[in-house]
Amino acid sequence: MSGNIFDDFLSRKTLFVDKEVLRHDFRPKNLPHRQNEIEKLSFNLVEALNGHIPSNMTLYGVTGAGKTAVTSYVCDELEAKGREINRPVQSIMVNCRQIDTQYRVLSHLGNSLLESHEIDEIPFTGWPTDRVFGELVRRMDNRGGVFVIILDEIDHLVRKAGDDLLYNLTSINASLKSARACVIGISNDLKFTDFLDPRVRSRLGQSDVVFNPYDAMQLQNILRQRAQGALIEGALDDSVIALCAAIAAQEHGDARCALDLLRVSTEKAEQSGDECVTQAHVRMAQHQLEADQMHPVLSSLPSQQKLVLASILLNERNGLRNIQTGEVYDVYAQACRYVRQNPLTQRRVSGLISNLDMLGLITARTVSRGRYGRTKEINSCIPQNIDAEGIMVESEAQMKEVFERPYRHQSRL
Known about the structure:
about 425 residues, Arc Repressor Mutant, subunit A
């Protein structure tokens, strides 16, 4: 075999002009259908340009609703105007799914403020937390101006580490002398503030902005805008953008999902040697993305959440739909005994069910049963072409025994 194995791929005709335009982290010059949200953030943050402290804010909305993109866009504009009028403003964004402890968040914030001539980074671990906080305050005062601290996926941090960090950050202005700061929390979970101390809740929720999901027509506009810069002219069949938007709108109005569908559909067309992306390529991309996205989510679930999800799947295997919380808990308790784990209380399991619902692995709809109270009707959302049991068995040996063991199911009669 002569030549390089990549020669054939490089010589193929591509349908892309700039594939990066279809990536999640690409920042377009304008953000369609988010002018109202941009205005609300700008109205609050303009206080930083006047030398005042903006209110703390919480941004809510489903994944792919534009929360992070809008916040980054507004903060970039804020910093640019600050440089223009000589008002020092700096925004620092922290992804709390990746940096998920109080110590690591504080050290990340402190190290983001290092001057070019400074080499004394706060270590990854080893200092008392109050020393890290004190160092952060010192560096903020040395720089002066107004700081906008953005905590993306703040609900993940609160569930894992509690609200001590939020208490410290929302009261940091009492420790600052020549600087000021505000906190913006970004969350997919409308109810995460239920876990907060009332003092923290009142300080953080001074101004709330809810990002509604995009509808199908809005997603079409977003995709058309991106496609103009990403793909060659004539690369798309007329129905492709409408189909990508419809699929994403049916799920959660997720712009990321729509962009992924369009990008992978175009890649599928290229792999097939086709000169135009069609609905068939979109369906192929949909199946691939469902499998690609579901596998890491399922395999990385904590053991108790795996047991709860396994209990839901086992109920469905036995022919049940609209499964009630008690039916899930009955099988879950048996599974815990079998794998020698202490079962959580039914209330804690109900919380885990809500987490699985937020991840999109199940639906948990609360219904009223009149004088018998309220309950949840639970159903799996895992597509049939994905072997959820196989993924969890592969990632945790004990799960194999859970799925293979027969369970006693109580009658609904």
